[in-house]
């Protein structure tokens, strides 16, 4: 193989029909590990077949992409421009292409990364919110001991099944540790009431009664609450009082 | 190569994610494995063939890959934090390796089988992979390779990750696993998935072996 003595500004390689390298430009020898005997030896494994196909079977001038092994990279994308002369010598100009695609590749990669990190962020936020929601439910019905025999459960927000389940666990645990004869449940800060929430609330009242034999008194009931509760057609075997003060006063008598 | 695969490849090459998604949504009768194995994988292989026959450029391939990724993300869950089975799997490609679509499909198969899954995707340095695995303690680590000159690096990954305190099973997949015998790059315990069917079969076996005893 000889060095092509014209100062071509781009990598240039001349081959025969079998792909044997006959001559190359200075730019090509600087870029590739030459002398390789055959141009196919420069191709990346996945590009060999394509290169052979275009060198051996293509008679017309053509342009195609292949990945070639360079001195600096195991595979770099090139645009190959190939044409044949009358002596069946192939003239190949090799234009590196990676720089053109680099921008596109980086954009795609950053989009992929964003897709994956966004997903993780959303997942973390979702879990955080779920934890906050559970905590919020637990805090929406605190079990407060006003005296050794009187406990107070003010309910906040809507009466839902999930919220009542959260409150039940905590209320039963605290009630178990004390000896309460009266438990006042305050509806003053209650908003909407769901039917399944009411079922759970009634179950809680029944359990508290069984555990302590305590008298359950519902206080702070508003007209809209009583209308909602009435529409559910449930039995309410519990006392109703206008306010907590009334309960405390009555108990003191 | 059937007509449907060509149609899907056409949408992917145009970057038309919505058309690709609509096309796949019309295949409700297919399982996830069948969609991956009979439609998406052959469509992407066809894209590769188009490049080999000089009909498209690498830039077109990149667009098809990005679109396919988007379609997978939209239609198939590929990550899951809490599972019913309490088994954890993480998936990654070694440093420099950017062919991750197969890895993502396998992640989805694991999610579907009830595993907790973390997909780290392409190009994850060994040190980062090791730290993430030491923190999360996965039962399985899945690696994927498509490029021959990444194989020497793969050996380092398998050796180092096999030494983790959670002693995870190492699974190897990717284009090369279907083409060559990669056993010499693996440890004795490494499981090689030659294709998506092998992954499906392995998951099924695990399910039978690890099924909780309902009478307890």
TrEMBL record, chain A:
Keyword Coiled coil appears in the UniProt entry: yes
Keyword Coiled coil among record annotations: yes
UniProt organism field: Bacillus badius
Protein name (record): STAS domain-containing protein
TM ranges: none
Protein keywords: Coiled coil
Signal peptide stretch: none
Domain STAS: 140-229
Coiled-coil stretches noted in the UniProt entry, renumbered to this chain: 101-139
Taxon lineage: Bacteria, Bacillati, Bacillota, Bacilli, Bacillales
Domain of life the protein comes from: Bacteria
UniProtKB/TrEMBL annotation, chain B:
Gene3D superfamilies the UniProt entry points to: Cobalamin-binding domain (3.40.50.280), Methionine synthase domain (1.10.1240.10)
Keyword vocabulary terms for this entry: Cobalt, Metal-binding
Occurrences of domain B12-binding (ranges): 86-212
Pfam families linked: B12-binding, B12-binding_2
Keyword Coiled coil: no
InterPro entries (alphabetical): Cbl-bd_cap, Cobalamin-bd, Cobalamin-bd_sf, Met_Synthase/Corrinoid, Meth_synthase_dom
Protein name: B12-binding domain-containing protein
